[in-house]
């Protein structure tokens, strides 16, 4: 699981009803995209594929369905921002074509389709230990989530 593994662990623990503890004295070293490169096709593929995997594993069904619309909005807003030299897509486009970015998204979605049965089984297995209901899930998103525009503009 390359990219989004910390999110996977976090969602797993939160939704299972475990508490996260803030420890201000803790130090973590993270080589941000150290092996993959910050705006590489390799990183983009894994981030996008794994983002969808996380949605399949953890989102309540209505939110899983809505996540497709949210992602489409984000893709379009990223495209818009990239023409103003803003956001991660603009950074990606410095060394790659827009067409290669489209192909990257297509490959990520095809990889998800291929592995969908496996991810759905994991979702079903997780359902047995899930403690948070949809309302509590949405409260977490309201408190800690990022908007589609915020995500699209992230560099």
3D architecture notes:
This protein is mainly alpha-helical. Helix content is 68%, strand content 0%. It is globular. It starts with a helix and ends with a helix.
Features:
mainly alpha; 7 helices; 155 residues
What's the gyration radius in Å?
16 Å
The fraction of residues assigned to DSSP E strands is under 5%
Largest beta sheet, briefly?
Answer: none
Give the class from helix and strand content and strand pairing.
mainly alpha
Poorly predicted runs of 5 or more residues:
none
Mean pLDDT reading: 87
Distance between the termini: 22 Å
**Helix and strand string, N-terminal first?**
HHHHHHH
- Specify the overall morphology: globular
In short:
With 155 residues, the protein is mostly helical. It contains 7 helices and no strands.
Q: Helices, strands, pairings?
A:
Layout (H helix, E strand, L loop, with lengths): L4 H11 L25 H18 L2 H22 L4 H7 L4 H30 L6 H11 L3 H6 L2
């Amino acid at each position: 699981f390359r990219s989004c593994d910390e999110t996977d662990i976090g969602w797993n623990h939160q939704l299972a009803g475990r508490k996260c503890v803030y420890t201000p004295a803790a130090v973590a070293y993270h080589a941000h995209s150290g092996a993959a490169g910050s705006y590489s096709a390799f990183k983009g593929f894994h981030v996008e594929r794994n983002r969808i995997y996380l949605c399949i594993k953890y989102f309540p069904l209505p939110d899983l369905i809505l996540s497709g619309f949210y992602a489409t909005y984000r893709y379009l807003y990223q495209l818009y921002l990239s023409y103003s030299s803003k956001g991660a897509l603009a950074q990606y486009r410095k060394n790659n074509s827009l067409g290669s970015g489209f192909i990257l998204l297509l490959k990520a979605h095809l990889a998800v389709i291929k592995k969908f049965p496996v991810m759905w089984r994991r979702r079903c297995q997780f359902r047995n230990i899930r403690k948070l209901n949809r309302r509590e899930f949405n409260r977490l998103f309201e408190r800690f989530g990022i908007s589609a525009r915020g995500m699209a503009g992230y560099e």
